[in-house]
Amino acid sequence: MGFRFRRSIKILPGVKINISKTGVSTSIGRPGATVNLSSRGVKTTLGIPGSGLSWSTMSKHSSKKIPDYWEYNNYLEPKQVTAQPDPIARCTSSNLEDLRDYVIAAAQKVTPYKNQLSGKVLELERLQNLVTKVSNNLITRFIPFLRKKLLTNLKTIHNEIEKLELEIETKAFRVDFNSDDIHEDLMLLARSAKELRESQAAWEISSHIKRIDLWDWSDPSSIKSNDTWFPLFGLGQNSFVVFHNFIYYGNDRSNIELIDIRDINVEYQSIRVPIYEEDTQFSDLKVVGQSWKFAKVNGEPDLRYKDNYMVNDGEFGVVKISSNKGLRICLKITNSKAALHFVWAFEAYKEALQKQPSQIYWNP
């Protein structure tokens, strides 16, 4: 028989402290109706004194450690979700409302040509594959005009693509800048954005957490510039692109928002999260300690699980991007150092813009 120890101490009428070798608990109530509070959970007992009849229920504490890094919504476990063009909340800055209207009008003109261009590019790829197969076939030695005909068609499609690209270029809304005074800060932001995109894994946190590819972005065709512009990252099928003093957020087909960089707040937070089996493949994820796979809220091992063991804790970087007009983006990055550098560079560029008067030129 194993050693047992239990002692109850009455501190108030109907309230007792119970001490045993497994821990300390509190009992509240009287015979027939009691509630027991312990580290394992809350146990409620109802019965008829002297009858031997009683009913009990146990409400256990959650053993899952929930990080507190996200303040925009409830935390959900990360899971793979197919990227979709998520709708964007209206977040255009007040001083860019007119410009947004012109860019949207240009997008409506550009879209038919972009659709034609996509079809022609696919046709070109199929024809190139066919030319390669025919060139490696002995039949073409006896029927040379067949390959010649395919090459002629290939040249025709190339010319059609060039014409469509020229049409898109002329119908896009043109914005000109003068960024000579802030060029160095602009290039620093571009390099830090590239470092961020090179992180081995990233998750976007919105109404759920989904794995995303930060390289998945496309050039906005509805707006063109004479000066440097570059993407920060892609979110699903939406692009986050820097044009001098504002961000182009969205895609030419359904969403376009323009946000003044001086209205944007960028925050960094480092979080410590257990690294489970699916996360061990990320070499840029820094290990900062260990914790129990199944743990109580206080971090101690949950004794209900016999196969409990220690797992490494990884340091993830969290980048929160927001504005007072409704912009809300939260990214979880495996490379916490890259996430921190991005926030530093963005703040430095924002400060440079605030020191220099905005030099942006556009005509309706």
Secondary-structure content class: alpha+beta
Number of strands: 19
Q: Main sheet, how many strands, which sense, barrel?
A: 6 strands, antiparallel
Elements, N to C (H/E): EEEEEEHHHEHEEEEEEEEEEEHE
Mean pLDDT equals 79
Give the name of the CATH superfamily of the domain at 174-269 and 314-362. Pleckstrin-homology domain (PH domain)/Phosphotyrosine-binding domain (PTB)
CATH architecture of the domain at 174-269 and 314-362: Roll
Amount of helix: 25-40%
Find the CATH topology of the domain at 174-269 and 314-362: PH-domain like
Residue runs with pLDDT of under 50 for 5 or more positions: 62-85
Q: Determine Rg (CA atoms, Å).
A: 31 Å
Number of helices: 5
Cα end-to-end separation: 90 Å
The CATH C-level class name of the domain at 174-269 and 314-362: Mainly Beta
Strand content: 25-35%
Shape: elongated
Strand order of the largest sheet: 1-2-3-4-5-6
Summarize the structure in words.
This protein is an alpha+beta fold and 364 residues long. Among the domains are: 54 residues; 145 residues, Pleckstrin-homology domain (PH domain)/Phosphotyrosine-binding domain (PTB) (PH-domain like, Roll), CATH 2.30.29. It contains 5 helices and 19 strands. Strand 4 and strand 5 form a beta hairpin. The protein is elongated, with a radius of gyration of 31 Å. The protein starts with 5 loop residues before the first strand and ends with a strand. About 7% of the residues have low confidence.
